[in-house]
Specification:
Strands 3-2-4-5-7-6 form a six-stranded parallel β-sheet. A six-stranded parallel β-sheet has the order 11-10-9-12-13-14, with helices on both faces. The protein has a six-stranded parallel β-sheet with strand order 16-15-17-18-20-19, sandwiched between helices. Helix 3 runs parallel beside helix 4, helix 3 packs across helix 17 and helix 20 runs parallel beside helix 23. It folds into three domains: about 170 residues, Thiamin diphosphate (ThDP)-binding fold, Pyr/PP domains (Rossmann fold, 3-Layer(aba) Sandwich), CATH 3.40.50; about 160 residues, Rossmann fold; about 200 residues, Rossmann fold. Helices cover about 40% and strands about 15% of the residues. Strand 15, helix 16 and strand 16 form a beta-alpha-beta unit. The chain has 23 helices and 20 strands. By secondary structure, the chain is α/β, with parallel strands linked by helices.
């Protein structure tokens, strides 16, 4: 019995356990779509290829199981930004693109583009399927590469002649591996001598802190992290630009390791004698491991689950190749520290929250500060609800408010936001897949107006799939993050080419069949958000705010004025 290449592709992905595909349907991809239909794999048709990519990325981050983004050759170009966002967050999305005929490759075929070369720097594996009989092999290879070691997106280019041609359905099934179902990825186990050296350093520490990131999430070790930190009385910080590993309500979680957005982290790092970095990089966010962020007297121990990460942590005093879960198991065997160090961190956090609340500018009721908006939005939410953040200054103010809301007792289900590249427009796609996976929870997006305009077409996917998310627009009339930088950088202290006209975002939602409401006074924010949630519709609360520069933008503006962005 023979099957088209696209159908074989679908079967191979089903064999791996893929349950969700995101696409913008195109002629090049029809055999694969037929295969997904036959296999019972859910397919969501997005209004734009970049939206399809963000949906797949968000779905993968939430479930930690790869989703598929399927687009045609011209759609590949518009999916590249989503590929970059996934790459920055190590999200193992499977990108599949239909491509021009293999038979005439290099001859100017219909919609021919060198997608393999373009995707190569943004993925762990980018390859063209050159033989229809090897489709299952290519899928198996891509899947294992995506999940092993340092996770990341992969790209399979499927030429149209292979997509449409027919092949034996059991082609090459007489070769190993005979069982091609999904298996847990191999984990790195620490060398005993290297592990003991790291533990000896930590054993002598009086003021250690943990900074945890991506590697902990993808290895599913966040519960071990919390248990270990609680037993040993070690404060935990989250690397910036990554979804939270621990709840703000956790008694060991202290906030972001970001000295601009969260001052207690600056105090903790400055007084620490050992910093244990687990599953993250010594990149620009961590000042490449250098002073003044990390004192010269502080020992820097980096634990990573793959050699790729180790190579990025050249500045570490000690580097340990180990799966985070395996390391936590060994770390948890140490004797606990005296509790005064973690209590000091808790006091710093409490004082910071109180100071931030006291320092919110007291504006008139009809001049809404973005921090006050972020605080009120979260005040309208309940435990277990999901918060999605999108934008520049909107993102930064919302991160600050998350700590305040957590201190007040809000236990969010989780938080999603742009990653390392600060890609605008991910908010609505991320919220849509959050709702898809948590239908009984409310999902609220707080988005800058510029961020929403960057990916606004994605709202149609939410309407199409009947996903009642709530989008709160921080509407300050322009790209406030950029204009605030310009006003401090330009000699005339003005901003340029960053303003928008007055856009009735709430009316857009009403026109599409959803719920919309305009808010111009602070007292109306919480009731409006609650009404939007209760509407049961895809909803928008359009809030008129006054632009205010966030602490992190103020800090980076100062650096750029000195001709340095690092």
């Amino acid at each position: 019995m023979k099957m088209r290449g696209g159908q074989l592709l679908a079967r191979a992905l089903q064999e791996k356990g893929v349950t969700q595909v995101f696409t913008l349907s195109g002629g090049f991809c029809n055999p694969a779509l037929e295969g997904f239909m036959e296999c019972g794999i859910a397919v969501i048709n997005a209004p734009h290829e970049q939206v399809a990519g963000h949906l797949a990325d968000g779905y993968t981050r939430i479930t930690r199981n790869p989703a598929v983004c399927l687009v045609g050759p011209e759609g590949f170009a518009t999916a590249v930004p989503a590929m970059m966002e996934a790459w920055g967050e190590r999200s193992p999305v499977i990108f599949v693109t239909g491509s021009s005929t293999l038979k005439r490759q290099g001859s100017g075929g219909f919609k021919e583009i060198d997608d393999v070369s373009i995707a190569a720097p943004l993925t762990k594996y980018s390859v063209s399927i050159t033989d229809g009989e090897r489709i299952s092999e290519f899928v198996d290879r891509a899947w294992k590469i995506a999940l092993s070691g340092y996770p990341g997106a992969v790209h399979l280019s499927m030429p149209v002649d292979i997509m449409f041609s027919s092949f034996e359905e059991d082609a090459m099934r007489d070769e190993r591996p005979f069982d091609r179902s999904a298996k847990p990825p191999p984990r790195a186990w620490p060398c005993p001598e290297d592990l003991e050296q790291a533990l000896a350093t930590i054993r002598q520490a009086q003021k250690p802190i943990i900074i945890a990131g991506h590697g902990v999430w993808w290895s599913r070790a966040e519960t071990l992290l919390e248990d270990c930190a609680r037993k040993l009385n070690i404060p935990v910080f989250n690397v910036p630009y990554h979804q939270k590993l621990l709840s703000e309500a956790s008694d060991v979680y202290m906030g972001l390791a970001d000295v601009h957005q969260y001052h207690p982290s600056k105090l903790a790092i400055a007084e620490s004698d050992v910093v244990i970095m687990i599953g993250t990089r010594l990149d620009n966010q961590m000042n490449f491991g250098n002073p003044p962020l990390f004192p010269t007297s502080t020992q820097l121990v980096c634990v990573n689950g793959s050699h790729e990460e180790i190579e990025l942590n050249r500045a570490a005093d000690q580097a340990l190749l180990s799966d985070p879960g395996a390391f936590f198991s060994a770390l948890g065997a140490l004797e606990p520290l005296a509790s005064d160090w973690i209590e000091t961190n808790r006091c710093w956090r409490l004082q910071w929250v109180e100071d931030m609340i006291a320092d919110i500018p007291q504006l008139d009721d009809d001049r809404i500060h973005p921090l006050q908006l972020a605080i009120d939005v979260q005040a309208a939410m309940n435990d277990g609800d999901w918060l999605v953040i999108d934008g520049g200054n909107t993102h930064f103010w919302s991160e600050i408010s998350v700590n305040i809301a957590g201190h007040r007792g809000l236990k969010l289900g989780n938080i999603l936001h742009p990653g390392t590249f600060s890609m605008l427009g991910v908010g609505v796609p991320f919220a849509s897949v959050a709702k898809l996976n948590n239908p009984d929870k409310s999902v609220v997006v707080i988005s800058g107006d510029g961020a929403f305009l960057s990916g606004g077409s994605s709202i149609e996917a939410a309407f199409q799939e009947k996903l009642p998310i709530v989008v709160v627009i921080d509407n300050n009339g322009g790209l406030d993050c950029i204009s605030q930088q310009q006003e401090r950088l330009f000699s005339k202290q003005q901003h340029f080419a960053t303003d928008f006209r007055d856009i009735p975002f709430h009316s857009m939602f009403e026109g599409l069949g959803g719920y919309g409401e305009l808010v111009e006074k602070r007292a109306d924010i919480i009731p409006a958000v609650k009404r939007a949630i209760a509407s049961g519709k895809t909803a928008c609360v359009n809030v008129k705010t006054v632009g205010h520069i966030s602490p992190i933008v103020l800090a980076t503006t100062s650096k750029r004025d000195r001709a340095s962005i690092e």
